[in-house]
């Protein structure tokens, strides 16, 4: 007798819990299983809670006998298509991250909370049958209604966003609705509109730019490092690649550093592509705007998707090219939760989608440079500045035994004065914000420490506060020593606020514009501050590394680097690389227009070999030397490196945990020249927000061996029952 085989349907879901596996459920009761598809969101019961999960796979068998039913399907929308699920699985694998947390990290907050996708569906206004029958001359006595009617007759259905932008008010729409002439219908989500930009045509490419474009084939995967001097026209390359794939009906993805996505950048792209729709995704967006932009990208309604780090996880079905601007920037590495590198994922994403990826920088990271020099990536150069700008002249200003005024040498102050007097602009780079990085008592030696971190409090004079730059701690400024009540208190060292005071006094006839995190707290503030400088009047810009990134200020002819020494003597092996990148980028702000530029670099160590190489030979030679040093020391990128991190209020617990982790790993893979252990050692910032931080470092010549070891140590560490201890694995860690 034949028995009908009852095919079981089992849902394999990514549930946001810190466990490195998927979970099986039965379909929600009463739901037609035909409505289910991988990539959808469902509510599931988990350990007494209700969690939002993502359906990853539908299977017929489960190793578990007793399965719970999922609670409910959130909506029909498939948010993660196959290629996107493949990328997220890769992330979970490579970074040893719990898959449920990877999906959660990929979702915008509003969608993670379970809001249905059609909440942001765009409303489209269309003519009813009756409306379609009207002549254009109808409604002559109501001119506003007539204008809207004519638009719909001529150009068809219109989105609510577009109607608003064109000034057709809701009242007019309602009037037509009441006459039964129009109706709203729901369509796919479109991105929120960007600020208006005057359309601007493309410049004629120079030879170098043309060669670069000719070398990138958009029909299949390739990875390219574009090593192009600051101002050589890399952005123009990104725009041309966008143009190419847009013309084929595909989407372009551009990643920018955290503080690189300025309204200026967006305007430049919007001005080039007025007929395309652009979704910008960055941390400055409100929750709803972010969900809307993301859904528009997923629905394919956005042609250009541009954003910071996490944009890399946005599912794009028509992807045509991936580009990473300032690929060396540290903000592409996520430093907590799922600790991925968006720059590295850009390459994985492009390979999965079989499209090209372009990594652009004037100061490539050693990782990318190594990949290019070893032939794994195509290596393209742009050595000339675009247009008629010339490279700046660099001068070293020794500061030892000089009579400095708040950190400025007489020579620097004289050059600043001369430049302003010529009607040009000056940029002063200071790598610390606030008034002074420490406050001390001259009588008893008391220092203002953060009670929660192993760091000093920074004095902010204008707000009369002492603030910790590593946690949120803040206290009022004191006039007398809390320890001995002496009134001789001194501020040690300098910061942007202190320099601003001096420069405002010394150059009282000119505006002094301070750009740091304190003056640019609001979304548009940076743009507003820089607008002053873009006007072209003589002025003095001073600020932190915010000023080093991507801004194009053609009237800046003098750049002063107040103190180049910060990174030369750090315990972090990446410090020289970062210092080199920062100095080269800051210097690159000088002379970007038709006026020639000059850079003054103040240092106490003009003879330092690394600094000399950087200033005389440029970043390219400097970086290649650093790569040779890393090879000798067996450090990344020559070897692979991962950290196991632990932090706890009780330092001994964190240390012990890592000591055990090391013993466990050593029992699997004993130390050898191919795989080495270091630690546990305290992190560079040993205590942060009240917790002591330690790490264990593992370097390996073989990435596969390291990976398999990390899988085992994660399984081991998941057994940790100490709730007050936090641990994490940080593959390709960037911070010690
Ligand atoms: P990068 O991104 O490499 O720093 P940009 O793309 O911002 O450089 O270009 C620097 C300046 O040169 C911009 O003002 C840009 O408009 C201009 N520019 C770029 N390419 C050309 C070109 N082919 N001809 C003239 N000007 C150009
Ligand atoms: Zn004192
Ligand atoms: Zn602190």
From TrEMBL:
<dbReference type="InterPro" id="IPR014001">
    <property type="entry name" value="Helicase_ATP-bd"/>
</dbReference>
<keyword id="KW-0547">Nucleotide-binding</keyword>
<comment type="similarity">
    <text>Belongs to the helicase family. PriA subfamily.</text>
</comment>
<dbReference type="Pfam" id="PF00270">
    <property type="entry name" value="DEAD"/>
</dbReference>
<keyword id="KW-0067">ATP-binding</keyword>
<keyword id="KW-0378">Hydrolase</keyword>
<feature type="binding site">
    <location>
        <position position="471"/>
    </location>
    <ligand>
        <name>Zn(2+) 2</name>
    </ligand>
</feature>
<dbReference type="InterPro" id="IPR011545">
    <property type="entry name" value="DEAD/DEAH_box_helicase_dom"/>
</dbReference>
<dbReference type="InterPro" id="IPR041222">
    <property type="entry name" value="PriA_3primeBD"/>
</dbReference>
<feature type="binding site">
    <location>
        <position position="468"/>
    </location>
    <ligand>
        <name>Zn(2+) 2</name>
    </ligand>
</feature>
<feature type="binding site">
    <location>
        <position position="481"/>
    </location>
    <ligand>
        <name>Zn(2+) 1</name>
    </ligand>
</feature>
<dbReference type="Pfam" id="PF17764">
    <property type="entry name" value="PriA_3primeBD"/>
</dbReference>
<keyword id="KW-0235">DNA replication</keyword>
<comment type="subunit">
    <text>Component of the replication restart primosome.</text>
</comment>
<keyword id="KW-0413">Isomerase</keyword>
<dbReference type="Pfam" id="PF18074">
    <property type="entry name" value="PriA_C"/>
</dbReference>
<feature type="binding site">
    <location>
        <position position="450"/>
    </location>
    <ligand>
        <name>Zn(2+) 2</name>
    </ligand>
</feature>
<feature type="domain" description="Helicase ATP-binding">
    <location>
        <begin position="215"/>
        <end position="382"/>
    </location>
</feature>
<keyword id="KW-0862">Zinc</keyword>
<feature type="binding site">
    <location>
        <position position="484"/>
    </location>
    <ligand>
        <name>Zn(2+) 1</name>
    </ligand>
</feature>
<feature type="binding site">
    <location>
        <position position="441"/>
    </location>
    <ligand>
        <name>Zn(2+) 1</name>
    </ligand>
</feature>
<dbReference type="InterPro" id="IPR041236">
    <property type="entry name" value="PriA_C"/>
</dbReference>
<feature type="binding site">
    <location>
        <position position="453"/>
    </location>
    <ligand>
        <name>Zn(2+) 2</name>
    </ligand>
</feature>
<dbReference type="InterPro" id="IPR005259">
    <property type="entry name" value="PriA"/>
</dbReference>
<dbReference type="GO" id="GO:0016787">
    <property type="term" value="F:hydrolase activity"/>
</dbReference>
<dbReference type="InterPro" id="IPR042115">
    <property type="entry name" value="PriA_3primeBD_sf"/>
</dbReference>
<comment type="function">
    <text>Initiates the restart of stalled replication forks, which reloads the replicative helicase on sites other than the origin of replication. Recognizes and binds to abandoned replication forks and remodels them to uncover a helicase loading site. Promotes assembly of the primosome at these replication forks.</text>
</comment>
<feature type="binding site">
    <location>
        <position position="444"/>
    </location>
    <ligand>
        <name>Zn(2+) 1</name>
    </ligand>
</feature>
<dbReference type="Pfam" id="PF00271">
    <property type="entry name" value="Helicase_C"/>
</dbReference>
<keyword id="KW-0347">Helicase</keyword>
<dbReference type="Pfam" id="PF18319">
    <property type="entry name" value="Zn_ribbon_PriA"/>
</dbReference>
<keyword id="KW-0639">Primosome</keyword>
<keyword id="KW-0238">DNA-binding</keyword>
<keyword id="KW-0479">Metal-binding</keyword>
<dbReference type="InterPro" id="IPR001650">
    <property type="entry name" value="Helicase_C-like"/>
</dbReference>
<dbReference type="InterPro" id="IPR040498">
    <property type="entry name" value="PriA_CRR"/>
</dbReference>
<protein>
    <recommendedName>
        <fullName>Replication restart protein PriA</fullName>
        <ecNumber>5.6.2.4</ecNumber>
    </recommendedName>
</protein>
<dbReference type="InterPro" id="IPR027417">
    <property type="entry name" value="P-loop_NTPase"/>
</dbReference>
């Amino acid at each position: 007798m034949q028995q009908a085989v009852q095919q079981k349907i089992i849902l394999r879901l990514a549930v946001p819990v810190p466990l490195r596996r998927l979970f099986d459920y039965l379909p929600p009761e009463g739901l037609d299983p035909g409505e289910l598809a991988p990539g959808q969101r469902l509510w599931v019961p988990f350990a007494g809670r209700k969690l939002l999960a993502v359906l990853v796979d539908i299977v017929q068998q489960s190793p578990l006998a007793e399965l719970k039913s999922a609670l409910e399907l959130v909506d029909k929308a498939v948010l993660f298509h196959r290629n996107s699920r493949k990328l997220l699985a890769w992330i979970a694998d490579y970074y040893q991250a719990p898959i449920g947390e990877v999906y959660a990290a990929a979702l915008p907050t509003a969608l993670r909370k379970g809001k249905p996708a059609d909440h942001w569906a765009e409303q489209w206004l269309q003519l009813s049958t009756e409306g379609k029958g009207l002549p254009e001359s109808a409604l002559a006595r109501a001119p506003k209604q007539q204008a809207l009617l004519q638009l719909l007759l001529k150009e068809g259905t219109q989105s609510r966003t577009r109607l608003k932008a064109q000034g057709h008010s809701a009242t007019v729409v309602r009037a037509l609705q009441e006459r039964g002439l129009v109706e709203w219908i729901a369509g796919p989500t479109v991105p929120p509109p960007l600020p208006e930009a005057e359309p601007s045509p493309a410049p004629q490419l120079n030879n170098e730019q043309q060669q670069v474009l000719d070398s990138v084939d958009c029909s299949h995967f390739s990875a390219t490092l574009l090593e192009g001097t600051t101002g050589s026209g890399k952005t123009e390359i990104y725009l041309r690649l966008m143009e190419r794939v847009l013309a084929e009906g595909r989407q372009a993805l551009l990643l920018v550093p955290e503080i690189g996505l300025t309204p200026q950048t967006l305007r430049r792209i919007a001005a080039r592509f007025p007929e395309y729709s652009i979704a910008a995704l960055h941390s400055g967006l409100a929750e709803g705007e972010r969900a809307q932009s993301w859904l528009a990208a997923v629905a394919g309604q956005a042609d250009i998707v541009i954003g910071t780090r996490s944009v890399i996880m946005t599912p794009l079905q028509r992807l045509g090219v991936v580009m990473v601007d300032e690929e060396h920037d540290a903000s592409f590495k996520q430093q907590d939760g799922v600790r991925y590198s968006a720059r590295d994922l850009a390459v994985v994403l492009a390979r999965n989608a079989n499209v090209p990826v372009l990594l652009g920088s004037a100061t490539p990271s050693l990782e990318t440079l190594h990949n290019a020099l070893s032939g794994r990536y195509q290596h393209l150069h742009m050595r000339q500045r675009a247009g008629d700008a010339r490279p700046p002249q660099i001068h070293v200003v020794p500061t030892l035994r000089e009579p400095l005024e708040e950190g400025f040498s007489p020579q620097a102050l004289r050059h600043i004065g001369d430049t302003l007097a010529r009607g040009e602009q000056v940029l002063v780079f200071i790598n610390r914000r606030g008034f002074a990085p420490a406050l001390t008592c001259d009588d008893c030696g008391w220092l203002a420490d953060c009670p929660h971190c192993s760091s000093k409090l920074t004095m902010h004079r204008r707000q009369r506060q002492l603030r910790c730059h590593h946690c949120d701690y803040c206290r009022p400024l004191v006039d007398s020593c809390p320890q001995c009540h002496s009134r001789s208190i001194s501020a040690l060292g300098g910061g942007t606020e202190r320099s601003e005071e001096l420069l405002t006094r010394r150059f009282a006839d000119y505006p002094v514009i301070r750009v740091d995190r304190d003056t640019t707290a609001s979304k548009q503030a940076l743009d507003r501050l820089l607008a002053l400088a873009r006007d072209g009047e003589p002025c003095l810009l001073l600020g932190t590394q915010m000023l080093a990134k991507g801004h194009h200020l053609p009237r800046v002819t003098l750049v002063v680097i107040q103190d180049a020494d910060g990174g030369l003597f750090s315990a972090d092996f990446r410090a020289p690389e970062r210092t080199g990148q920062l100095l080269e980028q800051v210097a690159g702000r000088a002379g970007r227009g038709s006026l020639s530029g000059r850079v003054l670099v103040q240092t106490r160590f003009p003879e330092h070999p690394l600094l000399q190489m950087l200033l005389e030979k440029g970043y390219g030679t400097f970086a290649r030397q650093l790569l040779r040093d890393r090879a000798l020391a067996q450090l990344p990128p020559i070897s692979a490196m991962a950290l196991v991190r632990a932090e706890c209020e009780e330092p001994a617990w964190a240390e012990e945990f890592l000591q055990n982790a090391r013993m466990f790993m050593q029992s699997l893979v004993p130390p050898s020249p191919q795989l080495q252990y270091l630690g546990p050692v305290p992190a560079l910032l040993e205590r942060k927000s009240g917790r002591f931080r330690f790490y264990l470092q593992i370097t390996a010549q073989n990435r596969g061996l390291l990976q398999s070891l990390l899988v085992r140590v994660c399984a081991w560490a998941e057994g940790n029952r100490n709730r007050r201890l936090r641990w994490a694995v940080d593959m390709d860690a960037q911070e010690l």
